[in-house]
Write a sequence for this structure.
């Protein structure tokens, strides 16, 4: 019987570091801290139905959304792993209002900042659908011995050094990029290791899945309505109608489209002109991964990774997925805008 060589995530990260002889090892340590916390969160998510960790925590986050117990637990786990690891100087979390500065007695000059959404799609916890963790890593701008400033944190997505997500689905996977392609690792719970299962992921240039909350259709800009109608119109040549797939959990919708080809849209709406998703915790990391996989990510009018952040919890519309699909949606959005202006 032919045995296949298993490459664990820790081995892979360490090997990647050895390609950069001058690397301090801090990035590797941060990634390994995230891996450790992800395994703990995975354990908690897996037993969510068994013990009393489901349900509302009784507080709201700063977006006014109900916080579930698992959100709090996941936030605590990632915060603990990253602060105890001490290789980053600050953590920005969707669950925290402000910058969390990390004091590290061992590493006096950590230069990395980690932004994260510890448990995205948390409205899906109670119904046992896939949820996930998203992270983004970038370098501070100011000198390492000064206190981390808001300016250090509010950086464009193009400055990301690494980004990734963990999907707690029918299996648990960690997908990440450091700007050298996108790699996916599946957790083998029998050995407690993430093993390389999806090397160098590439999204097809065209896809046949569209994912958006069509329940908000009447609130969409004309161009998005036109694009939705296009996706649903029969056309043999372009293989339409496309399939509509929407879980309402960004990572789950993104992951499926990344592997199969498709587009995910959270558009601006009449009620929420900036959409719903957060630039720093959701859109930038997903955009980095998508671009590294050969796809495209925009607000509909601008490349996501070039949006200058003005606030930590800023929201932006998101059009992300197969390059040709996103480009067409952008064109239709622009055409819809000029149509509306002419009327
Ligand atoms: O931002 C949280 C989130 O749950 C995402 O994971 C998901 O894509 C989106 O909200 C779903 O929003 P809606 O319920 O408005 O479709």
């Amino acid at each position: 019987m032919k045995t296949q060589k298993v490459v664990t995530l820790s081995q892979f990260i360490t090997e990647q570091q050895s390609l950069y002889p001058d690397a301090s090892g801090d990035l590797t340590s941060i990634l390994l801290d995230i891996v450790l916390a992800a395994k703990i969160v995975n354990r908690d998510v897996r037993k969510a139905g068994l013990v009393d960790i489901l349900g509302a925590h009784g507080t709201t986050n700063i977006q006014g959304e109900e916080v579930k117990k698992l959100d709090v637990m996941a936030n605590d786990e990632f915060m603990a792993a990253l602060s105890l690891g001490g290789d980053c100087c600050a953590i920005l979390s969707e669950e925290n209002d402000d910058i969390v500065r990390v004091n590290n007695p061992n590493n006096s000059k950590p230069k990395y900042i980690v932004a994260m959404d510890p448990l995205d799609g948390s409205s899906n916890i109670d119904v046992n659908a896939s949820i996930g963790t998203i992270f983004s890593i970038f370098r501070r701008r100011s000198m390492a011995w000064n206190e981390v400033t808001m300016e250090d944190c509010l950086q464009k997505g193009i400055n990301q050094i690494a980004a990734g997500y963990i999907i707690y689905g029918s299996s648990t996977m960690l997908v990440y990029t450091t700007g050298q392609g996108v790699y996916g690792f599946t957790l083998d719970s029998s050995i407690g290791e993430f093993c390389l299962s999806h090397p160098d992921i590439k999204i097809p240039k065209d896809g046949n899945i569209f994912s958006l909350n069509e329940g908000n259709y009447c609130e969409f800009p004309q161009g998005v309505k036109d694009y939705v109608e296009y996706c649903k119109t029969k056309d043999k040549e372009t293989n339409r109608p496309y399939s509509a797939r929407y879980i309402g959990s960004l990572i789950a919708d993104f992951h499926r489209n990344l592997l199969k080809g498709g587009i995910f849209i959270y558009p601006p709406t009449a009620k929420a002109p900036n959409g719903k998703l957060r630039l720093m915790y959701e859109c930038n990391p997903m955009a980095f991964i998508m671009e590294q996989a050969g796809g495209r990510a925009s607000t509909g009018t601008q490349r996501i990774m070039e949006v200058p952040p003005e606030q930590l919890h800023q929201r932006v519309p998101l059009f992300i997925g197969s390059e040709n699909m996103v480009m067409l949606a952008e064109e239709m959005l622009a055409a819809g805008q000029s149509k509306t202006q002419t009327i």
The pocket of 6-O-phosphono-beta-D-fructofuranose is lined by residues 120-121, 123, 213, 248-250, 276-277 (CB under 6 Å). The helical segments are 9-18, 26-46, 69-85, 150-153, 222-232, 250-260, 279-292, 323-342.
